[in-house]
Every structure is written in structure tokens, then in C-alpha cells.
Amino acid sequence: MHKHTFFHAKLPHFAHRPEQMNTLFGKMRHMFFVWKQNWMTRRQLAMLNDEELRDVGMTEAQRQEELNKYFWEP
User: What is the DSSP letter of 71?
Assistant: First the structure.
């Protein structure tokens, strides 16, 4: 039987081992992962043109509000 990797590719690597989240290192690793995701998502948001921004359902004011956040802010 063929194992589909599409579903597994969507899960963060730490999601497969919840016991790692109980350690200080695991919590720090998760925190840095979230910060990196915030930074990358906002960088991509900054590159959207007006049509793409409308496609995702955001206004320019909403985009600017999101872009003005620090990477550690949700």
C-alpha cells in the first residue's frame, strides 16, 4: 500500500512528538518555529499586489496593521 506524504507534509515536525513539548528545549523550539512562521507569512503578505490582496480578503489597512506587528506578536 502506498503511503501518502501530502498529509504528513502539512504537519510541523514537532506535532508528531507531543512529549517533546514538555521539555524546556521543546517549548523554545516551538516558540522559534512560531516566530519564524510569523516572519515568513508577513514577508509574503508584504509582497502581494492589490489583486492578490483582494483574493485573500484583506484591505490595505488590514495588511498594514499586520505588517506593523513584531515577529513575536500573534
Answer: T
